[in-house]
Amino acid sequence: MSTMISRVAGAALIAAMIAASASAVAHHSYSMFDMKTTRTLVGTVKQFEWTNPHSWLWVYVPNDQGEMEQWGIEGMSPNFLGRRGWSKNTLRPGDKITLEIHPLRNGEKGGTFLTVTLPDGKVMKMSGEALRADAAKADDARPDAPRP
Amino acid sequence: MASHRSIVLSVVGLVALGAAAAGSAATAPATAAGASGDSWAAIAKRPDFGGVWELVFRPPGGGAGGPPEQPSFTPEYAAKLKAYEAEQAKGGHQDSPAANCLPPGMPSIMNQPYPMEFLMTPGKITVVIEAYSQMRRIFMDGRKHPEDPDLTFNGHSIGHWEGDTLVVDTVGITPDNALGSSWGMKHSDRMRIEERFRITAPDTMEVRTTITDPIALTKPWNSTKTLARHRDWDIAEYVCEQNNRNFVNDEGKAGIILNHQ
Question: What percent of chain B has pLDDT over 70?
């Protein structure tokens, strides 16, 4: 059984999340990610880097042969997340988690972060609850938005 | 008024500076109102810009006001954008230098998904911008722009009050940077940005921006945005080089570094 499931995001909620993620990009293009594909990863936290310009979640994920592979998932910055319910302790080494990501187009084991389901079942969204209300309706708040 | 005093309180880190300025006033009346700008007492009577402000994300399509106005380029600059987009279509120009942590400069630095803080001191308003740890200095002491300003990321800014509106004029912005949504949208060294900042509700600020450029634009480019004040926030550290795994190389190829031991 595959532990990694690819699927196309269709739910309105996920669409809102994409908008949220895109609106909050700090400094780079999302062209390297396949923003139309959402992939689910089930794994174990290696390290959660609470750093600028992005947080980085390093996670061990078993492949179809049962071998552990390391994935690197880019998230929003601590500045952004810290104001929206996250902390450096939200994810700890050894935590068993389920992630939703947009994967890299080039097939490398990386992606950009949508949601994480914590060991206690709580779902944390990369956009944060406070932003979702705004970002669900946002498409031009990107740093490179067509607005002076 | 308490709200006015809070401006001073909000810049508590500058109290020492204020004391120093007051101390030197006996010999050089640099903090008196007039050509040298507002005194501390005069600042206390200005609108309360204190606290931390963040861009309000706008609805798709721009909301009730419709989609944001787009810049109208001269043929020369329209051709630059077209050439850039043609290269992008062939797989080039995958990202802007911001991916390498270079700040975007004006006007884009004012449109980041990170907050900013206005510090009002005699003769100057300092805008502390969290993104890329940037800072703008708006001279309020009556000086003019330099005749031949050095070209910098954030330019040379002078400001004055028109009633309750802070009017800021900025020139001297390096044309190495871009105007907005695409790195192919360029401007000349003659670009001028006027910003009109006004408090419209207790924690709401409206910013009307007009960009002119006699070489790159055929008409002024106008836009309006809203900032929301977050009284319980502080500006945080943002060192882009700390753990930047994004890059764009000289050939315009972008990528991510996934090495992690």
Answer: 83
| Higher pLDDT, residue B67 or B198 | B198
Chain B residues whose CB is inside 8 A of the A131 CB are 57
Residue B255 lies in a domain: no
Residues B225 and B155 in one domain: yes
Q: B104-139 pLDDT, tens per residue?
A: 999 999 988 899 999 999 999 999 999 999 999 999
Indicate if the pLDDT at residue B15 is higher than 60: no
Query: What is the domain extent for residue B90?
Result: 52-248
Strands B116-121 and B134-139: unpaired
The CATH number given to whatever domain includes residue A56 is 2.40.50.140
* Positive/negative CA dihedral, B21, B22, B28, B32: positive
Identify which has the larger pLDDT, B17 or B149.
Answer: B149
Are B19 and B94 contained in the same domain? Answer: no
Q: Where are the alpha helices (DSSP H) in A29-106?
A: 78-82
Percent pLDDT > 90 in chain B is 70
How many independent structural domains does chain A possess? 1
Residues of chain A with pLDDT under 50: 1-26, 128-148
**A28, B240: Cβ pair inside 8 Å?**
no
A147·B242 Cβ contact <8 A = no
Q: Which two tokens stand for residue B214?
A: 């006699």
Residue at A130 is within a domain:
yes
| Count of domains for chain B | 2
Between residues 2 and 41 of chain B, which touch chain A (CB distance below 8 Å)? none
Q: Which of residues 86-105 of B touch A (CB under 8 A)?
A: 94-96, 98-99, 101, 104
Peptide bond into B107 cis (omega under 30): yes
Q: Is B128 on the interface with A (CB under 8 A)?
A: no
**B59 & B181 share domain:** yes
- Asked if residue B209 lies in contact with residue A148, where contact means CB atoms within 8 angstroms, the answer is yes
Give the CA radius of gyration of chain B: 20
Looking at per-residue pLDDT, the higher value among B141 and A145 belongs to B141
Query: Are B222 and B149 contained in the same domain?
Result: yes
Q: Which of residues 50-89 of A touch B (CB under 8 A)?
A: 51-54, 56, 58, 70, 72, 74, 77-80, 82-83
Q: Which domain holds residue A89?
A: 5-135
Supply the pLDDT for residue A127.
65
- Does residue B14 lie in a domain region? yes
Residue pair B229/B51 in contact (Cβ under 8 Å)? The answer is yes
User: What's this model's pTM, rounded to 2 decimal places?
Assistant: 0.80
